[in-house]
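I am writing to request your help with a piece of structural work I have in hand. Thank you for your consideration; the sequence and its tokens are set out here:
=====
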Amino acid sequence: TNLKSVFFIIQKAVPHLEKTKGSIVNISSILSTMAVPVATVYSLSKAALDHLTRCLAVDLGAKGIRVNSINPGYFPTRILRHLGDVDKINEKFGKYEVAQQPLKGRIGVLEDVAQAVAFLVSDAAGFVTGELIKVDGGRNYNGSSTLSAEELQ
């Protein structure tokens, strides 16, 4: 669903976006470029979404439609609930991630992602297409190590 659903929704939206010269912002992940334990399929699907973003930027550009992606790092959400006590996991993983990223002192908040999306749909980004914007406090520059599912317990 990380790829197929996005593709089908975009197909349905293109006629409207063509009329309005709209913009598409996909939500991917920094894991699209990192190999981490227990996230093979997720990482692969996000890498495919990144490439879809670039391909659609080329395909839809002539129609005046810009296509970009936000690639967030770790944000404390409910996505890890399948591993157990999500609040405990988020606390532990959040501390680990803060230590790994160059921007110390805090973990990202969802407003960080929202502000990046707001930029990409604004006129200020009117000549930006095919870009993958990382919102991760610089985490992707500090290696691909992460905690395993067992370490999160």
Q: What stands out?
A: The CA atoms of residues 102 and 138 lie 5 Å apart. The chain has a mean pLDDT of 86. The chain is about 45% helix and 10% strand.
